[in-house]
Amino acid sequence: MKPCDLSSDVMFEILSRMPLKMLRRCRLLSRECNSLTYESSFMRLHCQRTNTIAGYFIQTSKKSRGYSTFCSIDNPGVASDQLTLDFLPETVHIRATADQGLMLCESQRSQNRYYVCKPSTRQWETIPNPNPRYFTCKTAMLVIGSDPLRFKLVRLSDPEPKEPELESEYSEPELDNYRRYPCEIFDSEIWAWKQLDDVMLSYDEFFDLGHAISAYGGLHWLTSTGDKKNILSFNEDKESWESVSLPESFCHGDHCYHVNLAEYEGKLALIYQRPEIPLSELWVMKDYYGKLWSKKHTVNLADFCKENGFYSAYTLYNADMIFIQGYYTAIVYNFKNGQFDRLRLPSTHMFSESAFFFQTDYEPIILRQPREKLSMPHCYSTLIFMLFLLFVPLLISFTLGV
């Protein structure tokens, strides 16, 4: 029997008891399985049944120091001081989160000193320093294998200023209108950085403040060019870049200034906030290769804003809920039934700068795979095989009397 032949109730019961790592694989079985695992009722029950944590790490900078706090509506029993980063050797800024409960952090004291960790098990490893000559512009993290664990980091650095003397002598007219962002990739399989070709953006195109979204086997950033926005996408498999356009209706007047990049059921999504009325639209890229967008939901926030004041939708928590940031608070709003949960934040978070979605279990993980060593029995068998290849021609010659 195919998985999609099962009733939704049976699938719900089976999937809600699966470990997090297996659940991610089951999402590939069918569209029904995938959609079911992103429902708000499923996520809450799955957290309870499998001892899984889901929520957000809220981060705020104050007087050049970063503060982070974990908050969750599906794990009310997990206090903010139970899931912290105090096990790391120094204070850090969160730079990215990824599958398997992984997090990329950067030292607050020394630029370009990175740590990869799993906060729920308090495991961590130091990442080799990238090129110290560059100043980091954007960083992101992508898990590409779970058994064994393999992940990649992407680092884009600020363009280097051109020297006027060299610019006139070695200038390339066709590239003069572009900025070069040095690009480096860290691969956990070899535990080293490598340099890729520079990323070229026009002089009037800039990165938005938000962090990267992981979808379709790649990483995606929102960029702005005047009154227009684009998506800069990194393909992990090809290690290549491309620019993706937003829906045409977004690129007129001031529409593009009220767009946030998000993930919806594993797909790339956009949250468009109407500036004149409390209305949000959720758009989903239904065909990544054809770059086709489809409007999935229209969310009326009038009643919510009447009770809570005007808030801007920040990102999606799951298929039913929007995550909203406010003063000393975070709100998770269910736009299908109009209910919401308000989460009070510590006084360090007057207004949070960023929120990183975080889903994890308590299973220990091997962050850095040991290099394969040739075992002694294997060495002997290899030696015997090589000797066999060496003496076979001699044996044949002797037998034939050559």
Automatic annotation (TrEMBL):
Sorted UniProt keywords: Membrane, Transmembrane, Transmembrane helix
UniProt domain F-box: residue ranges: 4-37
All residue ranges annotated as the F-box associated beta-propeller type domain in the record: 92-330
SUPFAM superfamilies, sorted: F-box domain (SSF81383)
InterPro entries the UniProt entry points to: At3g26010-like, F-box-assoc_dom_typ3, F-box-assoc_interact_dom, F-box-like_dom_sf, F-box_dom
Pfam families, per the entry: F-box, FBA_3
Domain of life: Eukaryota
Transmembrane segments: 380-400
NCBIfam families on file: F_box_assoc_1
Annotated protein name in UniProt: F-box protein At4g19940
Originating organism: Theobroma cacao
Encoding gene per record: LOC18588317
